[in-house]
């Protein structure tokens, strides 16, 4: 290790010889020293033995540019440059020039070299240098790992129309199918985008695909070799390759409703209820309702037919399309107890029917009139259910 001002003074021969040897020692040791040479020259090299750094003097001869950090214990070198760029002689045009970073290569059966990217987290306190951690690893067989030094997946990138722009594959992906892959696919016009989750096997079993196409096309579908579920562009879900809009499930609801007695002549006046229970489930066009109703008092009866109002949806207008219901329990009526019910087209009420008299063994086709209601106390109790097609669905 030596430094020199690179000036041979006029002196006697032994001193001149010593001066020349010192110049050669400074050159051979790259001007090594614990501090920078006192005499500097443009493009001069200097090795800082205190910090194990190699510098080059800039062409203006007014500053040192750090080049490498040398790990003397492990015989390794690391760059100190904060930017790596490719420039031609003029520094303005690098068209067609590639930057290639290569891992180490061996001979014969020697192990291949990976490319590893590391960063250091910021420290919270103290003066020691923060440690580095591997963030991205590219192995010798092309696997890419983010946040792991031992990746077992392959990530590929493609900008070609119809190909995956991002694809994550299992290590045993073969040439006949993207086995075990997750792909993000988009065309150049962005009219098609998809996510494919492809299971084991060349038949692409277990595909999960989300597509966005034109407004007139179905936006999403899921398939496993054959299509299993489709979300249609007009709304609704269809199954097993069925594309008919009429067969798509477009709604599911659960809710409550409030049943109430009313009469066809409009004269029934109910003073209060001890029970008004109503629940419904609507699946697509079908609505199934359950209800329970019981009065506490009735001030005016009237002469019309008594019905139960308040269905959550209007019954579909289907010719002769009455929806039959079931009365599970009814009690405390005066003359005829309701034994059957149905919902008629274009209505939101439940019609009640019974036998012509309490003792008659006739059909259940007699209307229940308001005169059959008990006017006082907790009476006129009915538990019932009806399933019907909803209008306009």
Produce the secondary structure layout:
Layout: H1 13-28, E1 45-48, E2 53-57, E3 64-71, E4 76-79, E5 115-120, E6 132-138, E7 144-146, E8 153-156, E9 164-170, E10 182-186, E11 193-197, E12 208-209, E13 220-224, E14 226-231, E15 237-239, E16 252-256, E17 260-263, E18 269-283, E19 286-300, E20 306-309, E21 323-331, E22 340-343, E23 349-354, E24 366-367, E25 376-389
Antiparallel strand pairs: 1-2, 2-3, 3-4, 5-6, 6-7, 8-9, 9-10, 10-11, 12-13, 13-14, 14-15, 16-18, 17-20, 18-19, 19-25, 20-23, 21-22, 21-25, 22-23, 23-24
Class from helix and strand fractions: mainly beta
Shape: rod-shaped
Q: What is the ordering of alpha helices and beta strands?
A: HEEEEEEEEEEEEEEEEEEEEEEEEE
Radius of gyration: 44 Å
* Number of β-strand runs: 25
In short:
This protein has about 400 residues and is mainly beta.
Keywords:
1 helix, 3 domains, four-stranded antiparallel sheet, single chain, 393 residues, ten-stranded antiparallel sheet, mainly beta, 39% strand, rod-shaped
Plain-language structure description:
With 393 residues, the protein is mainly beta. It folds into 3 domains: 13-77, no CATH class; 153-250, no CATH class; 254-389, no CATH class. 4% of the residues lie in helices and 39% in strands. Strands 16, 17, 18, 19, 20, 21, 22, 23, 24 and 25 form a 10-stranded antiparallel beta sheet that branches. A hairpin with a 4-residue loop joins strand 3 (64-71) and strand 4 (76-79). The model is unreliable at 156-165, 170-180 and 187-192 (pLDDT under 50).
């Amino acid at each position: 290790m030596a430094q020199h001002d690179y000036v041979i003074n006029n002196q006697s021969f032994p001193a001149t010889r010593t001066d020349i040897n010192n110049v050669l020692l400074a050159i051979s040791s790259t001007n090594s020293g614990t501090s920078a040479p006192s005499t500097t020259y443009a493009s001069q090299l200097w090795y800082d033995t205190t910090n194990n750094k190699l510098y080059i003097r800039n062409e203006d001869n007014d500053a040192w540019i750090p080049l490498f950090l040398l790990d003397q214990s492990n015989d390794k070198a690391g760059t100190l440059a904060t930017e790596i760029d490719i420039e031609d002689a003029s520094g303005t045009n690098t068209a067609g020039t590639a930057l290639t970073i290569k891992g180490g290569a061996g001979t014969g059966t020697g192990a291949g070299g990976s490319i590893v990217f590391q960063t250091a987290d910021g420290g919270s306190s103290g003066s020691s240098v923060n440690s580095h951690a591997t963030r991205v690893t590219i192995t010798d067989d092309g696997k890419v790992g983010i946040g792991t030094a031992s990746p077992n997946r392959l990530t590929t990138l493609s900008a070609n129309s119809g190909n995956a722009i991002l694809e994550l594959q299992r290590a045993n992906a073969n040439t006949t199918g993207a086995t075990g892959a997750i792909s993000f696919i988009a065309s150049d016009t962005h009219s098609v985008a998809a996510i494919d989750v492809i299971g084991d096997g060349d038949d692409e079993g277990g595909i999960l695909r989300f597509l966005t196409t034109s407004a007139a096309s179905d936006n999403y579908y899921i398939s496993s070799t054959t299509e299993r579920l489709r979300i249609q562009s007009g709304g609704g879900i269809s199954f097993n390759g069925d594309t008919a809009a009429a067969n798509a499930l477009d709604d599911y609801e659960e809710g409550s409703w409030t049943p109430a007695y009313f009469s066809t002549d409009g004269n029934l006046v109910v003073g209060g209820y001890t029970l008004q229970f109503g629940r419904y489930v609507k699946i697509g066009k079908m609505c199934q309702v359950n209800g329970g109703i019981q009065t506490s008092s009735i001030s005016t009866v009237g002469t019309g037919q008594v019905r139960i109002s308040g269905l959550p949806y209007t019954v579909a207008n289907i010719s002769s399309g009455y929806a039959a219901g079931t009365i599970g329990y009814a009690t405390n009526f005066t003359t005829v107890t309701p034994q059957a019910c149905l919902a008629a087209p274009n209505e939101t009420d439940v019609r009640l029917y019974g036998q012509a008299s309490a003792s008659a063994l006739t059909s259940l086709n007699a209307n229940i009139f308001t005169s059959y209601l008990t006017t006082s106390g907790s009476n006129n109790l009915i538990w019932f259910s009806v399933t019907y097609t909803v209008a306009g669905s």
